[in-house]
Amino acid sequence: MDTLVLGISLETLAWLIPGLPLLGALCNGCATLMARRSGQVAPKPLITFLGVGTPFLSFMVTTFLFFIIRSTHHSIDTAPLFTWMAVDDFIVPFSLYVDQLSIVMTLVVTGVGSLIHLYSVGYMAHDKAYDRYFTYLNLFLFSMLILVLGNNLPMMFIGWEGVGLCSYLLIGFWFQDPEKAYAGKKAFVVNRIGDFGFLLAMFLLYTTLTQQGVDMRGGSLNFATLEAQRQLLAPVATTACLLLFVGACGKSAQIPLYIWLPDAMAGPTPVSALIHAATMVTAGVYMIARLNFLYLLSPDAMSVVATVGAVTAFFAATIGLAQNDIKKILAYSTISQLGYMFLGVGVGAFSAGIFHLVTHAFFKACLFLGAGSVIHGLHEEQDIWKMGGLRHKMPVTFLTFLLAVAAIVGIIPFAGFFSKDEILFQTFMRGHRVLWAIGFATAGITAFYMCRLFALTFLGKSRIDPHKEAPIHESPLSMTLPLMILGLLSLIGGWIGIPEVFKGHNYFHHWLQPVLGAGTLINESAHMHGTELILAVASFLWVFHVGLIALILYSQKLDWIKRCVKKMDWVYNILRDKYYVDEIYDFILIRPIHWLSQQILWRFGDEQIIDGLMVNGSAKTINLAGRLLSLMQTGWTQHYALFLAAGALGLVAYFVL
Amino acid sequence: MNIHWITQNILTLTTFSPLIGVAVVFILPRSQEKAIRIVSLLASLLPMALSLWLYQLFQGTGHFEWTQTIPWIEDFHIFYRVGVDGFSVPLIALTGLLTPIVFLSSWTSIQKSLKEYFIFFFLLEMGVFGVFVALDIFLFYVFWEVMLIPMYFIIGLWGGPRRLYASIKFVLFTMVGSLLMLAAILYLYYAGGQTFNIQELYGLALPLEVQKLLFLAFALAFAIKVPLFPFHTWLPDAHVEAPTGGSVILAAILLKMGTYGFLRYAMPLFPNAVQAFLPHILTLSVIGILYGALVSMVQADIKKLVAFSSVSHLGFVMLGLFALTPQSVQGANLQIINHGISTGALFLLVGMIYERRHTRMIADFGGIASVQPWFATLFLIVTLSSIGLPGTNGFVGEFLILLGTFRTHPSYAVLATSGVIFAAIYMLWMVKRVFFGPLDKEDNKKLTDINWREIGLLLPLIVLIFLIGFYPRFILHKTETTVLKFIDQVHHTQEKVVQNYGAAH
Questions:
Q1: What's residue B502's pLDDT?
Q2: What is the gyration radius of the CA atoms in chain A, in angstroms?
């Protein structure tokens, strides 16, 4: 590709996408550190300019490349900027790969990312560490873009752990609070458990290829190399895919590694929107779609992915029913929606999974930013029982939130309807009836808890502490503008993938066809339109009615609800306490390991056995032996003569006998 | 004296260049403290410049480069024989680089017997250089013992409250190992037809049983140094009691003499024994990785935590060496340097906070990121390098080791990989307790951030962390041929011995 744009090659443009946020992070980081030398905060205009400007530029470059790819139908595989690791036949080039799949992801990351950067200007305006915040946020964007654009698994892993680092830093952004610092650490450690799987998968894939003597000079773990050699990988596909899925479970918060995500809500709300809803947590789904050729080799691994996804979707949704913290509800809803995406890619409908990833990025970012606007307006109040009636005081937040709720619930023609129903339809058509039923049921639960959240926050009468009531106002434009854009996208974002049955053209799926091939859609022939229509209508009616009931109950019949909850309080308590999973992990894993390390390995093993008995013990033995032998040195000539005689006798005896 | 002459004698010049420092510090009057510090620092720049130049000159041909042979004690065929390859050159450069850094770090923390302090460090540096350049086992042994003495005094004179116990323990552990090694060296001398020349001894085909005994004698000495589990208990004591500079050199360089010993002597000399003991050493390495990590987790003293983490890190190195694949040995050789950089930096950082608060107990801190943003930032970067985050040096080393190990010993690799989880736990938990949370202790509120001298001395290490993290090839490139030759040597000699052995029967 030697196309030049204003004298800049497409490859250079591709490098600019992650390069610009990196530049922002470096400059902001230096500015922050230099300012701290004199106990100051870096100049805000500078930080804002770099922190928000670089993502926007990056988004513009991405958009440009999108149109290039659209017109040329070529992907851009950059020449290596340099060779990262190279030992013998193991070679990892540092290069990017921009194709139909990664450009979609990049558009989401830079687009939604830029909006959230903009939103942060308002949200974090009064924070003492405004400069540090934008450093981390830019660094996150860089890592995420490397994750998405890297042309090989190890580069994806740089991004993979890089976003984990930024997540750690941003969850614990207000580190003075020990709970927030703890949540950050927990997120990192749980993610590391997932990364353990990711690492092993890379080892396995490389080892398999090198044992077959494959020529890997272009890059040993390049996606292109793996795809070209996929037949050789068939014997290890199941193991490799499952190991990678362990990584995905960590990053994308699926059972059993989802536990870090609810705690991650300790971070600033825009961070929850960007990292813990729209982009980072979807990395697992993206990874599986990227490696679709590998997953297609292993139906077993695929069904594990689909099952875990469906079960997580259901499980997290039930917890969402009984949470009272606005961000916690959204967190469980994110886990649940991610479950849908895994269900999609797990049944082989990769493009449906990615479609839901995109629409989810719109509406979930909108929901989180809306929640942030509410929290901001209510001075850090997060309990939905202490809200209510906000529709008048925060009209823009209210309206945009409504659009996003409609999208996640799945109302025609909002974004979530098309993507979620695509997944359910594909699940059904590919014969996974049980999983479809779980997904269908989850849709109803989702409708219920989202409408509960919406009603308690915006509808009904105000339950706000009267002292806090007076100064409530709508958020500034820097916050409401991103809300409006995302609200609009929650409405129309799904129209890029309207299926034929609704007179659409399935544009999104055709777009991904070159990458995902058969993994896009089951050929929509006319006789399936009937089934598709029935399923879609059924699911619409189901969520519509459940949602309506929840809206009415939680805006008009609060007393009745409270009485009901009291009657079934044991169910409610289990849900509220999240099935006690954290406590179970603590009891069966964390405490035993800590006890083993402290009491057995260190105190007993190291101090008493190895150092006490073996090291100092042998020193004592030698000491004792020395003392015993020194007893022989009595200084009496007679004694020495005696020893001499005894020795001589002994020698004689030895030789004679 | 022209450039050509210097390059021809570069090894000898580098090795003995610290003696200039010894001489000038010796003649300075004791009262001129400032002058002693400045002159020492300047004098340490000479070995640094020479060692870095050597790194530049080194081609990576796979043969010993810049060799020199001068008869020494001819009656016993002892030669002053020096040369370098891809195993020794990075370590020499690291030693040269770290010495000025250590001197800068002792600027205010060392107050007593200044002259002796710097003289011992120069002698130590010379001993270390000697160990790495020697190609004659006798010469190697002399330097090996020479560097023991200054280290003993550094711990014993400038150390903490239990410095005597720690320094004697350090010496005794090392001596026990070295004595057996000396016996083995003498046996080799006669078995090899009265030569100490390592290159000639490589070709020696000894029967398996003899190899096993000799290997054990060498391996014990080196395993104690590394330290391989369960020979590690001298390490936490030595580290905790040693002054900051001592800990840095101990962790960054002295431990590596153990791994270097395996690479240069124990493994290529006794390839069949390597094969025989392979499972045992791999097992001990993996135990060390997990054990070191778990025990680190429960330490209350930051320095002890870092010390135990070394047991874990060196476990990775040993695993890589004995897995004997190009990636694993390259990774291990790189990780030897990485550990020197990261753990060296960690000890420097711990020293800085100790100098301010006179405590290293995790429980005495909390929330200090608020008052020490620079310190916290640099500490976190080094921590991330220590836990092997991609983009830092630690990742490249660990990744290559594990990848290479997976090829030949997948089950060991799987167990070892779980070590990356524990590394994150013990390091980040410590970071959380020291830096995050409320700043609730009066003493901590008055803490001052690190000054420009401290930032300056850390900066080269921080740069290396990222440089190796993204472009490890500037080292891997230089060491690749040596590593491939080494693996070939261990495998090839094995076959030869088996043939000879078969022919004899």
A1: 44
A2: 30
Q: Is residue A619 part of a domain?
A: yes
Mean pLDDT of B436-458: 92
Angle at B384 between CA B378 and CA B385, to 5 degrees: 90
Ranges in chain A, pLDDT < 70: 1-6, 470, 518-527, 657
Q: Which residues pair with A91 in a beta bridge?
A: A86
Per-residue exposure over B57-81, b if at least 16 CB sit within 10 Å of its own CB, e if not: ebebebebbbebeeebeeeebbbbb
- Main-chain phi, psi angles of B248, to 5 degrees: -60, -50
For residue range B9-61, what is the model confidence (pLDDT) as tens digits?
Answer: 999 999 999 999 999 999 999 888 899 999 999 999 999 999 999 999 999 88
Which residues of B are less than 8 Å from A601 in CB distance? 291, 294-295
Rounded to a whole number, what is the distance in Å from the CA of A314 to chain B's nearest CA?
Answer: 29
d(CA B363, CA A113): 39
3-state secondary structure of B70: strand
Does residue A344 contact residue A509 with C-beta atoms inside 8 Å? no
Residue B375 distance to chain A (closest CA, Å) = 10
Count of domains for chain A: 1
Place of tokens 């077959």: A212
Task: With beta carbons under 8 A apart, name residues in chain B contacting A606.
Answer: 233, 295
Residue A147 CA to residue A330 CA, distance in Å, equals 25
Would you state the structure tokens that stand for residue B473, as one six-digit string?
């090839």
Range of the domain at B328: 3-504
Tell me whether residue A639 is in a domain: yes
Q: Which of residues 194 through 233 in chain B touch A, CB cutoff 8 A?
A: 230, 233
- Give φ, ψ of B72 to 5 degrees: -125, -75
On whether residue A46 sits in a domain, the answer given is no
Q: What pLDDT is recorded for position B126?
A: 95
Please name the amino acid found at residue A262: P
Which structural domain, as residue segments, surrounds residue A620?
Answer: 581-656
Query: By CB neighbour count within 10 A (0-12 exposed, 13-18 middle, 19+ buried), where does A592 fall?
Result: exposed
Q: What is the model's pTM?
A: 0.93
**pLDDT band at residue B494, thresholds of 50, 70 and 90?**
low
Task: Tell me whether B156 touches chain A (CB under 8 Å).
Answer: no
Instruction: List CB contacts (< 8 A) between A614 and chain B.
Output: 230
List of residues 6+ apart from A309 with CB closer than 8 A: A254, A338, A339, A340, A341, A342, A343, A344, A345, A346
For A294-326, the DSSP string reads HHTT-HHHHHHHHHHHHHHHHHHHHHHTT--BH
> Could you read off the pLDDT of B188-228 as tens digits, one per residue?
999 888 889 998 888 888 899 999 999 999 999 999 999 99
Alpha helices, H only, A459-604:
466-469, 477-492, 507-516, 526-556, 558-567, 569-576, 581-585, 591-595
Q: How many domains does chain B have?
A: 1
Element (H, E) at B68: strand B65-73
* Beta strand segments in B394-481, E: none
Rounded Cα gap, residues A553 and A455, in angstroms: 9
d(CA A538, CA A545): 11
Q: Which pLDDT value is given to residue B462?
A: 97
CA A375 to chain centre: 23
Interchain contact, B428 vs A185, CB within 8 Å: yes
User: Which of A597, A607, A611, A620 would you mutate first to test chain B, the one with the most B CBs within 10 A?
Assistant: A597
CA-closest candidate to residue B301, choices B467, B181, B430: B430
The partner residue sitting opposite A157, judged by closest CB among B369, B390, B429, is: B390
Q: How many CB atoms lie within 10 A of CB B295?
A: 27
Complex confidence, ipTM: 0.93
How far, CA to CA in Å, does A402 sit from each of A319, A370, A430? 22, 10, 33
Strands A4-5 and A83-87: unpaired
